[in-house]
């Protein structure tokens, strides 16, 4: 069996899969802050998974962990995972020693890309567009994550599209992430609503003019991110996931309308058939945890 753990800013998802890659159990726990809490939480959820299926550590081939921050995938060291209070952590070494199981650690979006591709049973080059606090993509080619020469493949959130736009945390202006992400929405649509994205889209649907304008910015940003992925990688399918994907058809309908509008003025873009190549990740799918269980950090032999 394999275990996959997705350590997020607020929650940790974990699955245990058998040798047919069938999920035997799925658990979710709050994520603690700081090195000790993160490692303790990961160990605890592994032991809970094993207890749940009546297995021992000796029956587990590998634990994979998907985590935000800067990940050295060769050593399993994590740095600058600010959302979970980790400055630097030798996660693979410490967790592996505690459980006596090999541990591999990878970027959380790459893990989600792998898991989403498997969940949707896709056997074509695929991109996973994560619309979370930030914006980034993971690429899957021939069933394996494509990381690029230095691990930066898919970091499209930091492609500038508006030189006079908002300042991005990366130091550039007008990056895609400043238009289409949870942090962008919070900046563009300050509200006390429990679900800011839902509040924005509901008000836009009701005809509130400032909401319509902000929704147009967000949707154009998402559409631009899809366009960048398809033009730069020519993947067959882009799967949209992350918090904003929970908008469902509220997001997909204006997104398709944007693609159609672009196609009316650009025969080239029309020929790419953008709408048919975009899918939503089903809500509550444990894609990132499943992808972590499938992580294989050997170099990818094929190239895009």
From TrEMBL:
Identification of the protein by name: ROK family protein
Pfam family, one: ROK
Lineage start: Bacteria, Bacillati, Actinomycetota, Actinomycetes, Micrococcales
Alphabetical list of Gene3D superfamilies matching this protein: 3.30.420.40
Family affiliation: Belongs to the ROK (NagC/XylR) family.
InterPro entries registered for this protein in UniProt: ATPase_NBD, ROK
Species of the source: Labedella endophytica
């Amino acid at each position: 069996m394999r275990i996959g753990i997705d350590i997020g800013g607020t929650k940790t998802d974990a699955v245990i899969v058998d040798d047919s890659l069938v999920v035997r159990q799925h658990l979710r726990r709050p994520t603690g802050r700081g090195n000790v809490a993160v490692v303790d939480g990961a160990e605890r959820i592994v032991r809970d998974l094993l207890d749940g299926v009546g297995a021992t550590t000796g029956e587990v081939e590998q634990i994979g962990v998907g985590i935000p921050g800067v990940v050295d995938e060769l050593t399993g060291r994590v740095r600058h995972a600010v959302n979970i209070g980790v400055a630097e952590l030798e996660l693979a070494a410490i967790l592996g020693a505690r459980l006596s199981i090999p541990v591999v650690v990878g970027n959380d979006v790459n893990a989600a890309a792998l898991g989403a591709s498997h969940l949707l049973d896709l056997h074509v080059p695929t991109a996973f567009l994560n619309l979370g606090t930030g914006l980034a993509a993971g690429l899957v080619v021939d069933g394996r994550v494509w990381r690029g020469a230095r691990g930066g493949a898919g970091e499209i959130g930091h492609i500038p599209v508006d030189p006079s736009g908002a300042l991005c945390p990366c130091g550039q202006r007008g990056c895609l992430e400043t238009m289409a992400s949870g942090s962008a929405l919070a900046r563009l649509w300050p509200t006390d609503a429990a679900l800011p994205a839902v509040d924005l889209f509901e008000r836009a649907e009701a005809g509130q003019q400032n909401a319509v304008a902000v929704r147009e910015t967000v949707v154009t940003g998402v559409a631009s991110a899809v366009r960048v992925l398809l033009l730069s990688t020519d993947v067959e399918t882009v799967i949209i996931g992350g918090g904003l994907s929970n908008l469902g058809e509220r997001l997909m309908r204006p997104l398709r309308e944007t693609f159609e509008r672009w196609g009316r003025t650009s025969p080239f873009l029309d020929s790419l058939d953008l709408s048919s190549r975009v899918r939503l990740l089903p809500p509550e799918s444990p894609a990132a945890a499943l992808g972590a269980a499938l992580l294989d950090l050997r170099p990818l032999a094929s190239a895009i």
